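Our consortium's second objective concerns turning raw sequence data into structural hypotheses that experimental partners can test. To show how far this objective has progressed, the report includes one record in full. It was chosen at random from the queue rather than selected for favorable results. The single chain below, 227 residues long, was entered without modification.
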Amino acid sequence: MHPLDNVIWKALTTLQVHLGTANHRSARFSPDVSLLSALAEPTDDAYQYLTSLVNSGERVGLFLNEIPVVPKPWRIFRSGQMLEMLYAGSFLPKNGGAIPEFERLGDADVADMLALTELTKPGPFSKRTHEMGEYWGIRENGRLIAMSGERLRVPGYTEVSAVCTHPDHLGRGYATALISMLVGRICSRGERPFLHVRADNDRAVGLYEHLGFEKRVLMHYVVLERD
């Protein structure tokens, strides 16, 4: 198996075990950290074990190789194709524009991060998501206008996630600058960056390829709801 196969399960049973709960068939991040959850293997038995970690009416997100047929009490709330991309470059292009200073984001910035991610929809983001890794932002006149950070972490690999820019500030190179900085920091730790992106988001896929990422595998992102 590739080290990134079943990456949520590996994250929750290795470097990010402290951010969630698990049994021997399933695992999930705490709801205020992330929607993401995982199965050791996508079997009916594993779905039943996941039931024990999730309350009625709650939703969880899984990365799977195919759209599942789920047993009760689960139902598929939403699903879509997603690319996993792995950094294959050695250097990232320097941004030629004037980029404001990067700011490390933390507990005091949660409201601003939630507001920006709610507006731009880069993917699920909760009030403790920033505890999964380093998150960095760019502010203008005190307002958070762009951000990105680290989400899933497994030995040797760290995910770049939550890449977003306020619609009023697009086209200024902020996403490129933030990704470049994060990739540099991840590589300096001897780790390899990776990311996930909707398969139909051609603009984002093109940007990531320009920055040295290559498509590794096509998978499915599935949101399940427990009856």
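The partners drew two points from this record. The chain has two domains: 7-82, 85-217. The longest strand covers residues 74-87. Both points have been shared with the crystallography group to help prioritize constructs.
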